[in-house]
Write a structure and sequence with these properties.
Layout lengths: L1 E6 L19 H20 L8 E8 L7 H8 L7 E11 L6 H9 L4 E7 L3 H7 L5 H13 L4 E7 L8 H12 L3 E8 L16 H17 L3 E4 L2 E3 L6 H7 L4 E4 L4 E4 L2 E5 L3 H5 L3 E6 L2 H14 L10 H9 L3 E4 L2 E4 L7 H8 L1
Parallel strand pairs: 1-2, 1-9, 2-3, 3-4, 4-5, 5-6
Antiparallel strand pairs: 6-8, 7-8, 10-11, 11-12, 13-14
Helix pairs in contact: 2-3, 3-5, 6-7
Bound molecules: iron/sulfur cluster.
The site of iron/sulfur cluster has 10 residues, from loops.
Amino acid sequence: MFFYIHIPFCRQRCTYCKFALSPMVKEAQVNRYVAHLRKEIRGFFESGDREGDRIESVYFGGGTPSVLSPGQIADILSEFPADRFSPSAEICLEANPEDVTESWSTGVLRLGVNRISLGVQTLNPDSLAAIGRSRPESVGIALETLADAGHRNVNVDFILGLPHVRPGETLRDIRHLHEKFPDIRHTSVYFLEKWRYPKDWPATSMDDEAQREEYRTVREYLLGRGFHQYEISNFGLPGCESRHNRAYWDHSEVRGFGLAAASFLRGERFENSPLFSRYYEGEITGRETLSPEQLRLEQGMFGLRTFSLDEGLARPEKVRQLLSEWLLETRNSKLSPTLTWIFLIDHIMCELL
Ligand code: SF4
């Protein structure tokens, strides 16, 4: 079974961020939150729910999980029964480059954390200043610190469509980091949705077509380095794909702990409250059992994003049409959007499902 732990604290709010979080780290607030998280996790295991299931992943997402000390992370992990971890369990922490110190890196490695996901976004200093994130130098320092500590499975996240970033720059940044830090075994490249653009941002230097071209060149580069693209935005070396992300795409059961954390169990989806006071009272929101039709749509959507849509989930007449228009192709007996039209995935989904 897969577990997600939400850490809703950041040192400051990025200008494009719309997540439920507290953009300041106050010690008392964090301590109270960690204590409640522990109670929530303990309650789940004491309930006996899913007793026979192995723990396949524990993913600390946020927010910024790296605001937690190794001691706090150890306290949270101690609530998971040690004998239930699968030998190949993934324990992943999202980290902000500026939080990655020597003692933090060695501390979390000792706890069994075997994957670090570093939020880089871009190395353009003007862009980082505009979005309210760290200085570019801190990325190199963080990667070096992680390597020295012995972390051998690191992901870097990039975003396309940020202000000030010019054509060719994202490829140059990614190439630079990959050549210097061989422990980068996974890279995610996301497009920033337009609705997230704050009104006061400078216009992006790249139009949609320039962003697509950048994505294509980054993709070629990563494939050339032996990375495998297993989802539209995700590339990993063989064996280094994120097990946790795959769980979402495969519709596996995930139990989320923490503020606004979502769970999917027994075909039912529910979320903890996004308000601290209500979360502490145990309020659950949005409980719904997915209908067979909703499940089909979600499986279809994830199938397309992971280039492996079961033909049986799609409308047969549309499959024929989209294949003849080269929007779709067949890969290993599954349907996949063609690279040329990968950006029309939303349109393809609407047509097909
Ligand atoms: S680090 Fe992530 S969660 Fe925190 S403010 Fe920035 S985008 Fe939002």
